[in-house]
């Protein structure tokens, strides 16, 4: 499986109901990227964002959590058994093929997947941001880049990356999702069968892949996270994503650079809606700096796009 076939998206409403719902819901919202001032300034200057290995995330156990929960439910629960049985009604013994394919790629998913993360931006946070995210990612100079979701979710992108909402499920949540998907399969067996066995295998592969990479503990649900995902040996290879070894937080590591204007076929001025300066003692200086950065990036009336969070600074 050198690349995921984009035709499997025709089956998305059936096999990825939560994803389909979240994409429709997100079109009425905004996204936001929380980081520190240094990283945010580099994003604006270079018009690029970095994707880092899941092994270098804040908490690598996130992927282990998804792996344990999703595969545990798929292989060992009643809901998983019902799901597998219904798949085998579509194509005889197709789950044997799914298992064989997926097992071969588990290590690749865990060790060679690169992501970058955004959050859903709530209207009530438009003047202050989200305190928990400032604390997690802002250090002493937090920045929130508010992003136009229509550009991010557009299908006009030219790079082989996937975007997916994170689900904050425990075992019961994954079981519920499998029950919904099983019900959808039962209602659409002929339509699914007409897509062919290969397309169904790839679709279930995608369900398991997103489940593992985008399932987090319910205790951090306030993050409302979305992930942009790249798996070099699973997705179509591309030369547009530049790979480079860089030192991040003192750790040398490979990163992939997403050229923002290229992937979303737009200008930074249409992608970036607002810059929120987080709680910091350097608020005035950082504000001035980002106004200049936006001006240099070709953004008109940059002072109107840079605002200071009204959350009081706490030591």
Supply the key terms:
315 residues, alpha+beta, two-stranded parallel sheet, 21% strand
Fold topology:
Layout: H1 12-15, H2 17-26, E1 30-36, H3 37-46, E2 48-53, H4 61-76, H5 78-90, H6 94-111, E3 114-121, H7 131-137, E4 142-147, H8 149-152, E5 162-165, E6 167-168, H9 171-187, H10 189-194, H11 197-213, E7 215-216, E8 225-230, E9 242-248, E10 251-259, H12 260-263, H13 268-271, E11 272-277, H14 283-296, E12 306-308
Parallel strand pairs: 6-7, 11-12
Antiparallel strand pairs: 1-3, 1-4, 2-3, 2-10, 3-8, 4-11, 5-8, 9-10
Helix pairs in contact: 3-14, 4-5, 4-9, 4-11, 5-9, 6-11
Walkthrough of the structure:
The protein is of the alpha+beta class and 315 residues long. It has one domain (6-68, 111-174, 202-308). It is 46% helix and 21% strand. It is built from 14 helices and twelve strands. The strands form two sheets. Strands 1, 2, 3, 4, 5, 8, 9, 10, 11 and 12 form a ten-stranded mixed β-sheet that branches. It has a two-stranded parallel ribbon with strand order 6-7. Strand 9 and strand 10 (251-259) form a beta hairpin. Helix 3 packs parallel to helix 14, helix 4 crosses helix 9 (171-187) and helix 4 crosses helix 11. The radius of gyration is 21 Å and the shape is elongated. The mean pLDDT is 89.
């Amino acid at each position: 499986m050198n690349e995921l076939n984009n035709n499997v998206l025709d089956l998305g409403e059936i096999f990825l109901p939560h994803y389909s719902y979240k994409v429709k819901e997100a079109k009425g919202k905004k996204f936001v990227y929380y980081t520190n001032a240094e990283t945010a300034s580099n994003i604006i200057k270079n018009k690029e964002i970095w994707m880092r290995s899941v092994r270098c995330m804040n908490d690598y156990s996130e992927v282990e959590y998804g792996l344990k929960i999703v595969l545990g439910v798929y292989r060992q629960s009643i809901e998983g058994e019902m799901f597998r049985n219904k798949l085998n009604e579509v194509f005889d013994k197709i789950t044997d093929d799914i298992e064989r394919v997926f097992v071969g790629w588990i290590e690749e998913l865990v060790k060679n997947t690169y992501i970058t993360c955004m959050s859903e931006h709530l209207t009530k946070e438009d003047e202050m941001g989200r305190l928990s995210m400032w604390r997690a990612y802002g250090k002493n100079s937090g920045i929130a880049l508010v992003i136009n979701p229509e550009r991010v979710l557009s299908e006009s992108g030219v790079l082989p990356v996937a975007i997916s909402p994170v689900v904050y499920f425990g075992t019961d949540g994954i079981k519920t999702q499998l029950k919904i998907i099983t019900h959808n399969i039962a209602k659409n067996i002929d339509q699914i069968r007409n897509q062919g066995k290969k397309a169904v295998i790839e679709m279930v592969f995608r369900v398991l892949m997103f489940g593992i990479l985008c399932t987090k503990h319910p205790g951090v649900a306030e993050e409302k996270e979305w992930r942009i995902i790249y798996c070099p040996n699973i997705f179509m290879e591309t030369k547009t994503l530049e790979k480079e070894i860089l030192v991040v937080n003192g750790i040398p590591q490979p990163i992939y650079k997403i050229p923002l204007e290229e992937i979303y076929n737009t200008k930074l001025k249409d992608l970036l809606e607002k810059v929120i300066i987080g709680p910091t003692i350097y608020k005035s200086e950082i504000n001035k700096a980002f106004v200049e950065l936006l001006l240099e990036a070709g953004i008109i009336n940059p002072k109107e796009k840079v605002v200071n969070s009204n959350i009081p600074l706490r030591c």
